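To: structure desk
From: M.T.
Subject: fold request, one chain
Message: Could you run this one when you get a chance? Sequence is below, nothing fancy, just the single chain.
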Amino acid sequence: MAVLAVLIPVLMLGMLLMMGRYEDLVLPREAEPRPDPEPDAATAP
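Reply: Done. Structure tokens follow.
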């Protein structure tokens, strides 16, 4: 039973890596960068 307790998480991690989902889970994608707002007449010098 102790062997299964060690092997199951290792096998699950291996499957996660093989599926290519590891990066998505650990490093979520950043939101699209927003363009800088154009200055309006009130803030322009």
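Reply (cont.): The first helix runs from residue 2 to 18. Let me know if you need anything else for the meeting.
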